[in-house]
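If your schedule permits, I should be very grateful for your opinion on a structural question. I would ask you to consider whether the tokens describe a fold that such a sequence might reasonably adopt. Thank you for your consideration; the sequence and its tokens are set out here.
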Amino acid sequence: MARGNGMRATATWKIAAAYVGGIVGAGFASGQEIVQFFAGFGWRGLLGALGATALFALLGRIFTKLAYSMDTGSHRELLAGICGERWASFFDLALALFLWGTLAIMMAGAGALTREYLQTPLLYGILAMGLGVLLVLAFGVNGFLSLNLAMVGILLGITILIGSASLAAHGPENVRFLDPGTATAPGGRVLIPNWWAAAALYVSYNSSLMLALAASIGRAGGQIAGEQRAGERLVGERGALRQFAFGGLLGGAGLGALALFMTWVLLSAGKEVLHGALPMYIIARSLGPLPYYSYLLSLWIAMWATATSCTYSLSRRISRMLGLNWRAAAGVAVVVASGLARIGFTELIQTVYPAFGYVWFVFLLFLARYGLARHTCAKPTRRV
């Protein structure tokens, strides 16, 4: 029993890390997303980040609990359970395109990073990221979650250390001097002209990645949680469900807390940092060689973790569509995304994220209706 509890506790951290790793891609790690959706609104961005933290925690718990209860193997099944077959087909296509777009963004970011700092052709970085993703997925779902846990640990450690050093250097009290007018970058307001709508849009498009990941590992829940003998089935199911739900809540809350911390760091650093294309890069470079190179490592890890999560979710869906082994489907996903990655990092970010955020608002309305109608947070029963 003690061994089972220990395995489930590990599963909780794996699920939490999977949520964080699935979302903290290049835009997040560079600080650009944080500026666009939070810090660009000055001190009010802290309120937006605080609200996003609560919403991420709630959605993380809901998606993980539903996926485990419905015994899902891909996001298509979870979508059908929430909004019905007809709407599920629409959201299934939209989410698949978004996952492919996000994977392409991470691969394009890797290509841009290696071209800038290693002086290699763009394609080399794209291929390196693709091979890195397939290498992680070769270890299966447990291997993927274990390696992701390690990557996220390194990423969080570097980000917190650099952020703390920046706060110590600039003084956290500087936040109060930045109102929305001075924080906004030149060229106009951020995507939505008020802080609460920007926070809602940010949660909207990122929650789709949370759903896709939760749905992809729902059926593997028993394996991840370490369920053993048939005689322990009922206790194992209930314990695993609680651990998975808590892992989703912890991951969502951790993601939001990291966004809140980075907002505070960027606001305290001053408007010159906020106006840069890569705000965290500017901060890391100002702190010396070790923080600078550590930041480059964390940026690569962030892109790698998100690319791996997107590929895993896509592979589960493609395998059911084409009848392929999911690892072969992962190869298909990477090959297609590598072609899209050549469009360019900035161009992809400017089109993929905002457009999908509006689409996913509609799905969240379906989720709210489903929750009210079925009382999903009560005592769902896992299909066997």
About this structure: The chain is about 80% helix and 0% strand.
